[in-house]
């Protein structure tokens, strides 16, 4: 099985190093969807990160810029981006 754990957050990533230990014993990928523009990469656990810039670029690379605003910023609906990512990358 190809599993992606999606973590949307509008908070700083200070506590995620500890939280990420929950996934160490499982063969899963972790996608963090954040809102903080200048994130210190040392505070992000290993995995995928899509902040504001990264999501904008993702839509642009696919010619989908006009749909970028369908997913509200600083809102739990950002998980929708994670679902788009999971679908495109064939996660189960």
Please give a structural write-up.
A 3-stranded parallel beta sheet has the order 1-2-3. The radius of gyration is 13 Å and the shape is globular. The protein has 3 helices and 3 strands; from the N terminus they run E-H-E-E-H-H. The protein starts with a strand and ends with a helix. 27% of the residues lie in helices and 16% in strands. Helix 1 links the parallel strand 1 and strand 2 (28-33). The longest helix has 10 residues, at 52-61. The protein has one domain. By secondary structure, the protein is of the alpha/beta class.
Short description:
This protein has 92 residues and is of the alpha/beta class. It has helices spanning 16-20, 52-61, 79-88; strands spanning 3-8, 28-33, 48-50. The longest helix has 10 residues, at 52-61.
Which labels suit this protein?
alpha/beta; 92 residues
What about the largest sheet?
3 strands, parallel
First and last CA, distance: 6 Å
Q: Note the beta-strand portion.
A: 15-25%
Structural class: alpha/beta
Total number of distinct structural domains: 1
β-strand number: 3
How would you sum up the global shape? globular
Give the topology.
Elements (H helix, E strand, L loop, with lengths): L2 E6 L7 H5 L7 E6 L14 E3 L1 H10 L17 H10 L4
Parallel strand pairs: 1-2, 2-3
């Amino acid at each position: 099985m190809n599993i992606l754990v999606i973590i949307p957050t509008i908070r700083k990533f200070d506590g995620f190093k500890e939280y990420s230990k929950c996934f160490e014993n499982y063969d899963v990928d972790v996608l963090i969807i954040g809102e903080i523009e200048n994130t210190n990469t040392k505070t992000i656990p290993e995995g995928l990160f899509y902040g504001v810039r990264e999501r904008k670029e993702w839509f642009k690379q696919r010619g989908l810029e006009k749909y970028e605003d369908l997913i509200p910023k600083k809102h739990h609906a950002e998980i929708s981006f994670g679902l788009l990512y999971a679908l495109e990358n064939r996660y189960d």
